[in-house]
Amino acid sequence: MQTSTVRTLLVRGMIAGVVAGLLAFALAYVVGEPSIDSSIALEESQSAPAHEHDGAAGAPAEEEEELVTRPVQSTFGLATGVLVYGVALGGIASLAFAICLGRVGRLRPRATAALVAGAAFTTVYLVPFLKYPATPPAVGNPDTIGKRTTLFFLMIVLSVLVAVTAVIAGRRLAPTLGNWNATVAAGGGYAVVMALACLLLPANTDAVKETFPAALLWEFRLASLGVQALLWTAFGLIFGALAERVLRPAGGQAAGQGPETVTGTPAARAG
To answer: Of the ranges 38-42, 75-79, 186-190, 206-210, which is most confident?
Structure first.
C-alpha cells in the first residue's frame, strides 16, 4: 500500500474517531453522568457528619474551592476527553486496518474495518474490563488508585500482546489446519491465556467500598461498557465506509471487484 494511501486512511480514521467520539459523548452524558452524580452525592452525604463533628469541636473544616466545577467536568471536560480518546484510537486503528487489509482473508474494506474495530474493542477494553471493571469516582480507597491503574494497563498490554501472538499463530497454522480451524484454535488459545491471566493477577478487593449500593455500581459499569461499545461500533461503520471510498479508485481488487466488472474499462466495452 502506498504511503499516500496510508496517510489518507489515517486522516479518515481520525475523522471517524471524532464522529464516533461525539456519539459516545452523547451517550456518556445521558446514561453515565447521572450515576456519577449519584455516587458523588452519596460520598458527600457520608462525609458531611464528619465535617459537622469537626465544626462542633471548635475546628471548622474549610471547604476547598474546586478548580474545575462539576458542570464543566460533565460537559466540556467530558467532551474533550472523549474526543481526544476517539481521535487517538481512530488513528491507531486506521494504521492497524492498513496492516490487516488483504492479510486476513479476501475481505472488503468495510468488513476489515469492522473486524479491526471488534478486535480492538475486545482486546483493549472488554477483556481488561472483565478483570478490572470501571468504578465511579469517590467510592474506592484513594491510596490504591496508582496500583489499580497499573494493573488495568498491565491487563491491556497483556491482552494486546496475546492477541497479536494469536493472530500470528493462526496465520502459520492456516496452511495445515485450514482457515476456519486455525482461527478457532488461535481464538481458543487467546481465551485460555487471558483466563489464566485473570486468575493469576491480583484482584481489586478495595476498589469499591462495601457500603456503596450495588445497583448504582452496576448502572455505572453498564454505562461505561455501553459507551465503549458505541464508540467502537460507530468507528467501525464510519471508517469502513470512508475506507471503501478511498480504496475503490485504486482498482477493483480493493473494493472486491474484478477488472472485468468495472464499468467503462476496455474489458467491459469489449463485451
So the answer is: 186-190
- Statement: residue 130 has pLDDT above 70: yes
Instruction: Tell me the backbone φ, ψ of residue 223, rounded to 5 degrees.
Output: -65, -45
Q: CA torsion sign, 250 to 253 to 258 to 259? A: positive
* 70 phi, psi to nearest 5 deg: -65, -40
Cα 200 from Cα 266, distance rounded (Å): 62
Nearest to 238 by CA among 15, 16, 11: 16
**What was the pLDDT predicted at 122?**
93
- As a whole number, the mean pLDDT across the chain is 79
State residue 1's pLDDT score: 66
- Structural contact between residues 159 and 127, judged by C-beta atoms closer than 8 angstroms: yes
Closest CA to 35 of 83, 74, 85: 74
242: pLDDT strictly greater than 80? yes
pLDDT of residue 102: 76
Rounded average pLDDT over 212-241: 89
**Cβ burial, residue 131 (10 Å; 0-12/13-18/19+):** buried
